[in-house]
Specification:
Layout lengths: L3 E6 L4 E7 L5 E8 L2 H14 L3 E5 L7 H9 L3 E4 L2 H8 L9 H14 L4 E2 L5 H34 L1 H4 L8 H9 L3 H17 L6 H13 L8 H33 L5 H6 L5 H11 L9 H7 L5 E2 L9 E2 L6 H17 L1 H12 L4 H22 L10 H5 L1
Parallel strand pairs: 1-4, 4-5
Antiparallel strand pairs: 1-2, 2-3, 5-6, 7-8
Helix pairs in contact: 1-2, 3-4, 5-10, 5-12, 7-10, 8-9, 10-12, 12-14, 13-16, 14-15, 14-16, 15-16
Length: about 400
């Protein structure tokens, strides 16, 4: 049993560390700057008191990244307790105030009493890279969606016919069109033929059809709405922004694919129908690619929000609900992969249809399929083998 427990309330510029003994008596409490020399001095001072220390922190990334790396490099046992758990636990301690010192004490005391906290260890370099890249891609796609929505809302104010003429989230040709022509008068002036030529010069496929739709929209409106000039300039700016975002997303996708293919489980993960390069990279980024950290497929399912938890009370029994704390991105990854597999994989399709026949709606059936597929993926990674429709040895047994 360790002699000391060191809880750290992590921040951006500074951390507060509180060290307690087996009786929950504070033996050290210090605020340290989030710099390597100060953190190394803190670690040395704590280890001077005792060599048996369990460290705990309320962040597993971000501002605590340097501290976590230093502790792991020094071979220290490190636990992670979520900030929400610290917040709820604080209510059981004396005093209604909130300070960094109190939070650090709560973290240390929870580490002393609890046995269910997740240990933090050295992360796989590829998994860290994929986490950074996929997070950046997630931000870019969110920015792209916002820009398209803002562009369409702007067009709806002065040129509704053109706003509904194209699907701007999938049509690069429509975005290129908006970089040059955004108003009914401008489109009528250039005409269908010249507009088609303008689009062809920019390597737009099926340019005549694209041009025809734009001219048709222009002929449907001959009234200039107040503010049209400024709104058109804004639409052109937003269209160029979306095109630039598309190019950056394509570059990120290449980086993700190249890094993902270097991972030892890449071939195993993508062998499961419905999981391609991007979803496979998301899985490694969110799980670290190391199943040993979870212990079992059921634990992983709980992290993904696919393992229901009971909400029983009194005479109410069997009331199962999704857990409140789970990884939304991991659930999204499993759901999307299962949804694709339900239409393209014979085994997954049969399971999905059976669940629908039992009375489950589409969402419930896909979630049930995602839970089953997570067990399969766990077993594939554990055994380091690729997915097969028929289990290994089935043909030999039949012979």
């Amino acid at each position: 049993m360790p002699d000391l427990w060191a809880g750290t309330d992590a921040g951006k510029a500074e951390h507060h560390c509180t060290v307690i003994d087996a009786d929950a008596t504070v033996v050290l409490s210090r605020r340290v700057t989030n710099n390597e020399p100060e953190l190394l001095e803190l670690i040395a001072d704590v280890l001077d008191i005792s060599d048996e220390v369990t460290w705990a922190v309320d962040l597993n990334a971000g501002g605590a990244g340097l501290l976590i790396t230093l502790l792991v490099n020094h071979g220290q046992k490190l636990l992670y307790i979520p900030g929400s758990a610290v917040h709820h636990a604080s209510g059981a301690y004396r005093g209604s105030g909130k300070t960094d010192a109190k939070d650090a004490f709560v973290i240390a005391d929870q580490a002393r009493m609890r046995r269910d906290l997740q240990p933090l260890a050295a992360e796989d370099e590829i998994a860290v890279d994929l986490r950074i890249l996929t997070a950046r891609r997630y931000d870019l796609t969110a920015d792209r969606t916002r820009a398209i929505n803002r562009m369409r809302a702007q067009m709806l104010e002065y040129f509704p016919a053109l706003e509904r003429a194209y699907e701007y989230n999938v049509s690069k040709a429509a975005l290129l069109l908006l970089t040059g022509y955004q108003t009914p008068a401008a489109l009528r002036r250039i005409g269908k033929n010249r507009l088609a030529t303008w689009l062809k010069n920019r390597k737009v496929r099926n340019a005549p059809a694209i041009a025809a739709k734009a001219i048709e929209a222009a002929e449907a409106q001959h009234t200039a709405v107040p503010g049209e000039k400024t709104a058109a300039a804004m639409v052109a700016r937003l269209a160029r922004e979306v095109i630039a975002l598309d190019e950056e997303i394509a570059e990120i996708d290449k980086l993700i694919e190249g890094r993902f293919r270097e991972h030892q489980h890449a071939e195993v993960i993508t062998s499961l129908p419905g999981i391609g390069t991007l979803l496979g990279a998301e899985f490694i980024a969110l799980t670290g690619g190391n199943m040993d950290a979870f212990g079992s497929a059921d634990c992983l399912a709980g992290v993904a929000g696919l393992a229901p938890v009971p909400r029983d009370s009194g005479n109410v029994k069997g009331n199962l609900r999704r857990p409140r704390r789970y990884s939304r991105r991991l659930l999204r990854m499993c759901y999307l992969a299962a949804q694709v597999a339900a239409y393209h994989c014979p085994v997954s399709k049969a399971f999905y249809q059976r669940k629908r026949a039992e009375g489950k709606n589409h969402k419930q059936a896909v979630l049930a399929l995602a839970r089953r597929r997570l067990n399969v993926l766990w077993a594939l990674i554990r055994d380091n083998r690729t997915f097969e429709i028929s289990p290994p040895g089935q043909d030999a047994a039949a012979a």
